[in-house]
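User: Hi! I have a protein structure encoded as tokens and I'd like to know what sequence might fold into it. I'm fairly new to this, so please keep things simple.
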């Protein structure tokens, strides 16, 4: 999305830089909640609570900057290995955040969606998530995709299985299985191409997040712990992106 197409009143630092191109799709691995809490001598849940505030700030910054799509890694399929208490805290926080923020999110023109398998969080939360998706489905200012019980390898395996089933059923030719058809079988179908992937807290790995989608994305690893992330850090990330030369394998 170019600066000219940014919503009115969106003249943030990010849209005013010389190259002008605001990334259409930004994904974030929100990391460092636990360390943030430990540094303050607080329980891990306090870090997650502050992390939810960082989600609120970042979402506002993304709307203001004119980003089309923001994908957040909120719960990986490996996060079930955490203590039962922490998993319960995370589920509770998501419910609380949904209840408190949904109207505001809807009013801002945000369309909420999910990747992964959020049904694993139980019928009550799953129902609320589906209702939130339904309530916001016609919004078009920003698409917020929350990855819940998500793993990229499982997503790719699921897409391969779907295509194989179609071949088996005789509704698809084997020759039709290519990058484009696999892309369309992923849960991320219909989202803009991923431009920028950010991970906070100084860790330098993708942790099974958007492996296919990140093929040509710019990667940015910042030391800020997620609970300290906000508009300033978000706009700095966009400015960093705008300073990069993207060649997509060409010269
Ligand atoms: C990583 O920090 C963070 C998570 C596993 C959970 C992310 C959840 C939130 C930001 C809160 C709720 C989300 C929404 C969408 C409202 P970590 O616990 O791995 O931190 P550490 O590596 O320092 O231990």
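Assistant: Happy to help. Inverse folding works backwards from shape to sequence: for each of the 251 positions I chose a residue that suits the local structure. Here it is:
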């Amino acid at each position: 999305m170019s600066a000219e197409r940014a919503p009115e009143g969106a003249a943030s630092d990010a849209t005013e830089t010389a190259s002008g191109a605001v990334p259409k799709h930004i994904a974030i691995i929100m990391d460092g909640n636990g360390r943030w809490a430990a540094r303050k001598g607080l329980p891990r849940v306090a870090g997650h609570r502050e992390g939810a505030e960082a989600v609120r700030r970042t979402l506002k910054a993304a709307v203001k900057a004119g980003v089309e799509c923001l994908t957040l890694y909120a719960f990986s399929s490996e996060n079930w290995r955490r203590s039962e208490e922490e998993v319960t805290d995370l589920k509770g926080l998501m419910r609380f955040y949904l209840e408190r923020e949904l109207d505001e999110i809807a009013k801002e023109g945000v369309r909420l969606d999910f990747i992964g398998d959020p049904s694993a969080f139980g019928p009550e939360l799953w129902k609320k998530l589906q209702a939130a998706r339904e309530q916001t489905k016609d919004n078009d200012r920003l698409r917020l995709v929350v990855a819940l019980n998500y793993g990229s390898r499982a997503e790719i395996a699921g897409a391969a299985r779907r295509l194989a089933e179609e071949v088996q059923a005789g509704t698809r030719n084997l020759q039709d299985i290519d990058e484009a058809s696999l892309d369309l079988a992923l849960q991320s179908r219909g989202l803009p191409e991923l431009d920028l992937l950010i991970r906070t807290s100084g860790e330098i790995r993708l942790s099974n997040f958007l492996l296919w989608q990140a093929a040509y994305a710019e990667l940015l690893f910042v030391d800020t712990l997620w609970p300290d992330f906000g508009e300033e850090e978000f706009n700095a990330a966009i400015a960093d992106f705008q300073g990069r030369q993207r060649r997509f394998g060409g010269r």
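A useful reference point when you look it over: The pocket of farnesyl diphosphate is lined by residues 30-35, 48, 51-52, 55, 72, 74, 79, 93-94, 97, 146, 226 (CB under 6 Å). Feel free to ask if any position seems puzzling.
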